[in-house]
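Protein entry
_____________
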Amino acid sequence: MGANHSREDLNLSDSEEESGDEQTQEEEEETYEDAKEQGSSERRRPKTPSSLDDVEAKLKALKLKYPSSTNPNLKNAVKLYNHVGGHTATSKWVVADKLTSYSLVKSSLNDDGEEEDENDDEEEKDDDRESTWVLKVGTRVRARVCAEVQLKSFGEQKRVDFVSKGVWAMKFFTEEDYKGFLTEFQDCLFENTYGFEPTDGNKVKVYGKDFIGWAKPETADDSMWEDAEDSLVKTPPARVLREEFEEAAEESGGKIQSLALGALDNSFLVGDSGVQVVRNFSHGIHGKGVYVNFGGATSTTVHSTPKKALLMRAETNMLLMSPVTHGKPHTTGLHQFDIETGKIVTEWKFGKDGTDITMRDIANDNKGAQMDPSGSTFLGLDDNRLCRWDMRDRNGIVQDLATASAPVLNWTQGHQFSRGTNFQCFATTGDGSIVVGSIDGKIRLYSTNSMRQAKTAFPGLGSPITHVDVTFDGKWILGTTDTYLILICSLFTDKDGKMKTGFSGRMGNRISAPRLLKLNPLDSHMAGVNNKFRGAQFSWVTENGKQERHLVATVGKFSVIWNFQQVKDGSHECYRNQVGLKSCYCYKIVLKDDSIVDSRFMHDKFAVSDSPEAPLVVATPMKVSSFSISSSQRHA
């Protein structure tokens, strides 16, 4: 399938199809005003309703006592909509309840995420089960307050959309109620995420005093975002995605496991048992080239399921990693594959002080290191280790692979941390500075001089960082979590007035709040509850003075593309009337027929004159496609 826009959020109108008795908007507003006069106007933290309230709600739902529109004591009144039809031409919002109410309550959830029955007297019930904040809307919605509900607010419509076994929208009758709900929801989200009540003291405890702007974005210094924007073009032109090529992978190689894009003549599709070599062109990668089976290993263990491929030595060699046990990323070594001869020339072992150790990830020394014909070093990461490996022996002589049955890589630089850092992923800048993401959500920045002490450590937002990338100049960092991407500006001004990045010095307390990149609730629901964001990356540049133009991430069958300049623009329409951290929902989607393995932009050198960006390559297990990006004016 080709490229698609994210579906625009549909405006809710009171003339939409309703699923209950007929009632005019004027009658609803009159009923609501009556309820407001008789009910309490005091806003306070919601508490668990009594059993009588539950009975009352059930009677109302069954219409045995009175219609929903005439409840004289209705608090937190909203109109509830449900979206039906997905992304089809007949999709629409329908009224689920013309007048209902919401509540945010403490409740216990079972192992399946379902709310426990408060009247359940079973002896086996766990009395110590931790309670959590839950959003209830009438009798239709029960959802734990968390990032997975993908709450999106629309200030002008006094409306919020969210996901809970479907896509829902709540419209509020007053601005006060709308803003009050958002404040309560954010407080509940903080407590569910961190286990602390949302007091100022607890926010300092979680984020640190230098990052209080992350907890209170309205007080954060966003001047660095504005300074970094391209002042020549405030509003970027619309982009058009066009599929240029789609080809099937070599069947004998099995399913595609990963992409290894080259900056020179070739790129590589890494399969179960070999590598398919394809040509790089200005409109993408294509052409059934040479297919090389993994062979010639120096050990009896043949590398058959590579999960990570790293190009080296002017893209003539490839390092291949496989997990030792299924489902875990750690490995005790890797294979060096000579692309020119089509053979695995050796199996390297990770070792330190005579002891075998494991690694969970590897990376090039810097953004352009794979093009260096003499490169012999690369970086390694494990849960509590960050290091540099060297394929030469300690005396500077390349090891004799013909006689070494299991050559050991040399640990030349790095640190083994004694306490649990829980490193997950890492990436490098153009000068070799390192950014590391952790399971606790923290993102650490290390300079080129030391792997022992991070220059800057950004606090987590409650979700593990599963992938991380950084721009060539080190000014921008992109972290991937299951439900959102986090974009961080690392720029700051030091005490002498010089602008630096967080890789070269401590940023102090003038730190910009990050921005989040999310799917809107409908797209999130269509992507599937079990599909998570994976592998978000910037477009690829390896030259000073050039700026990355786009960001891309994979989720299920979606490849999602954001315009980098648009995300940085603080006046962009996405950010209007938002509460909390600014979230950008303006993106384009490439939808494929199968789950996507990887999505990456080719090297900037392959961008043609009439295109603002190099082609995007999207791989599924059995196919690879290339998309060009051009301005909409070209196709007018």
About this structure: The first strand starts at residue 3 and ends at 5.
